[in-house]
Known about the structure:
The protein has a single domain, classed as Porin (Beta Barrel), CATH 2.40.160. It is mostly beta strands. Helix content is about 10%, strand content about 60%. The protein has an eight-stranded antiparallel barrel with strand order 1-2-3-4-5-6-7-8.
Amino acid sequence: MLRKCVLLAVLAAATVSALRGQATPTASKVFDIQAGGSFVIAKSDYLPQKYKGFGFYSTIDFRRHLGIALDFHQVYAPSPAIDYERTYEVGGRYVLHYGRLHPYAKAMYGRGVYNFASPSPPDRSVQQANLAYNLFGIGGGADYSIKRYLNVRADYEFQLWGSDNYGYLPNGISPQLFSIGAAYHFR
């Protein structure tokens, strides 16, 4: 009788642990990360022409709906102008998930560099100015999952650059950027 009780206790203990084994997750992901590049079109309020260029971006989502975004943009004025705008940004993002579509909103802070030809004195042909500004940006867009590891993106951002003390851009600039890109989604 003692043997039967011990055997029954061992079987009961083994069964409970086997049933519990399926309930615990075998693996869990801490971060959701993607990195990619984009084609960028910018409308600056400094020149009437549209700037064109490229960008790189990365997102790190540490919660299902919350994460951070890192953005770099480099856009050039049409030739023969030497103007360009370059931005480095970091900020928070809020993302929703609807199947393969992932719309998001973002708020960014960063640094912008504006390179342009300034009015030249009589003894020089062209002077070039290269000034840096702090900037704030807000925007949004959507990622669409083509494959488990590949996302395509459409993104819009409005930036507000600070003014300078030199008089070149006393009111700052406020470019608008639209980008289309693709990213590798780390799974």
